[in-house]
Design a protein that fits this description.
This protein has helices at about 15-30, 75-80, 100-105, 115-125, 135-140, 145-155, 165-175, 175-195; strands at about 5-10, 35-40, 50-55, 70-75, 85-95, 125-130. The chain is α/β, with parallel strands linked by helices and about 200 residues long.
Amino acid sequence: MDITRLIITAVGGQGNLLSSKVLGEAALLSDIPVRMSEIHGMAQRGGVVESALLFGDVKSTIISDGEADVLVSFEPAEALRAMNKCKSETVVITNLAPLPPFTVTIGSGAYPDIDKLQDLISSKVSRLIAFDAVALSKEAGNIMAVNMVLLGALAQTGILPLTVENIKTAIKTRTKKTFVETNLKAFDLGYSEAEKQN
């Protein structure tokens, strides 16, 4: 089977690791070989959390520069930071709601202009799906469901060898019962948003 390489990047606390677990579970349900690795960085201090997921028969969990088939970013500046992993055929999905780092908050750094950021990413990859995932997670009933919104957008692209049904089953088994309904709603909202941008 073909190998699909996915990078998920986020800021600590945004739910990147849960997203990885959901996709790993969906791969097991689909009988698709999957390998995962994570870089936690200074996650508790708002630092970068990055996951690499490789679907198919691979030996390594490393995605080298220029190898990612798809990049999902929970934060726009993190999408820009991870662009070295992309190639011209990569699809990038990013949340447009910024979560500025501490340096920006205290005035010793500048946050990139969102429009310029989108233009730059668009010029380097085959497709950019960009929207305010925070607004959609609020609409779903849980501001913490940004990760599920972005999983929905990812599922809509059809890039991963996973069915929507298996991803939703994994959401039901991997998330707390009290959040299942809002997580599934968030997933559906993200799916619909990516469909609109098709």
